[in-house]
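assembly run, all chains below
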Amino acid sequence: MSELISAEAKSWIGRSGEPQRVEINRSDIIKYSIATEQRQAKYLEGDEAPPMFMFGALRPLVPMDELGPDGISVDKFLPELPLKRVMAGGTEMKFHRTVHPGDVLRATRSLSDMYEKQGGSGPLIFVVYDLRVETEAGELVMEERQTRILR
Amino acid sequence: MSAIDISTLAVGEALPERSHTATNVSLFLYNAIIWNPHRIHYDETYTTQVEKHPGVVIDGPLQGDWLNQVVLNWMGDNGTLTQFNYSNRRASYLGETLTSGGAITAIDKAAGTVDVEIFIKNEKGDVITPGTAQVRF
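ok done. output:
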């Protein structure tokens, strides 16, 4: 059944990455809101973060020498797989609470599933990540399921 | 913003459309704030010659945000966005004008929820980024 995904790679299913701590600040929300052409004052003035703001806030911050010539850093939270070209699959989000300046959030990503399918132009590997964002007090802020497709 | 009365909504009703035309400046600012150094969003020579795209690529998650705003700007002050799903099906490039919009697909008055289907279309009218969302009133 699983020809492309090795037993070692399979063993990554269920693993969680190191939790990421993020301090939310107003000027980042304002910059994000300008760049995404938000229309509502609460976003443009930075009182509340637009729902998709967290996508940018949680992107990896790595030293310059870990960026490739394409500008991308290698995601270390991915096992060795025989397919290398990564495409974004779908993203599903659930929002439980809005995000505001001063919030200190904790994000944990886990690799929740990995499976292969035969695509029209060859085999594909689907890697599913679940992201959980909470306040420091443990209040759930948002959940996100992101699928990456390797071909 | 005004409030929406769920009892006045009907399945099939359209959400307001909006057009977005990314520029080098807007893509630079977006990728700066999300801290995305991938060269396909700002380095045209690299993008066309090395990654073989026809032009500078408009970020998928930026389209996701525009899609999200279709709902945020429609639902008014009394709506809460509870769920949002999207996927980038096809790439789009600097110079293209994209249109966002959507329509109501289900209304549950007892639960106070409304489901919508949302889209980003290119100039040819192809849906390049489809999505769905749920709003609680």
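The first helix of chain A runs from residue 7 to 10.

Chain A is about 15% helix and 35% strand.

not gonna interpret more than that til we talk
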